[in-house]
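Listing S7. Sequence submitted for prediction.
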Amino acid sequence: MDAIKIMVNGLPGSMASNVVQHALKDARFEVLPYSLTGPEITATRCDVAHQAITLIHPDKKSEAIAGIKNDTPLFVSIDFSHPSAVNPNAEFYCHNGLAFVMGTTGGDRPLLEETVRASGISAVIAPNMAKQIVGFQAMMADASEVFPNLFEGYTLEIKESHQKGKADTSGTAKAMVNYFNALGMPFSERDISKERDPEIQQKVWGIPQRFLAGHGYHTYTLVSQDQTVTFQFSHNVNGRDVYAQGTLDAVIYLHQKIAQDIRGKVFSMIDVLKDA
């Protein structure tokens, strides 16, 4: 099978860089030497491992993509850019017929999905690309349907910690709110406790110093009305490797859907897991 050509956008960001590093070591993928970048980036080139990648700034992207598509008609775009760029980037991909995998959180999510459904391409869009965490989410989603209001009367606390540079609240934590609501606990996304202070993360959360710049810690605590029963669920990730690996699995899945000429479809990481 020919290698799947991918264009990783969001360089020189840490998550995009991690995906490139993993893809370069995997014979199933060919990394195109280009990346769409943000207006705040002044560099014109980014070196990841042994690969030199040209950074394409917003004012040049339409012209650049036309040339890239002319040379490489079929490739999958991977998006790990800033939350503020979620909807504009999706519109750009759809307008230019670029199937994409988006792990960036934030933005107007309903509009994001509507944009893809109204287009001629398909995409994998997920707030979390870690397969094991997505599996946990799927179990919670199933429980919320099978056992509605199971935890009625319980209080809920959701705490999440990510690196200082993460601008928005965890998309995973936001997604979990819906499941806990269905299980009988009123809770709003606004009530999620978000930690971004490295000193507190190290001293209070116990996050290793070397992972302060890249981690995702989540804790969900459920307490009964009389405070005699406590349930707690946690998933803590140090580094970014697990997200990169899941992203590349999503690329393979989307590439298969492209081969089947499936258009205007939004897939989730749960879809990817079910097809694995």
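Caption to Listing S7: primary sequence and predicted structure tokens for the chain studied. The mean pLDDT is 95. The radius of gyration is 20 Å.
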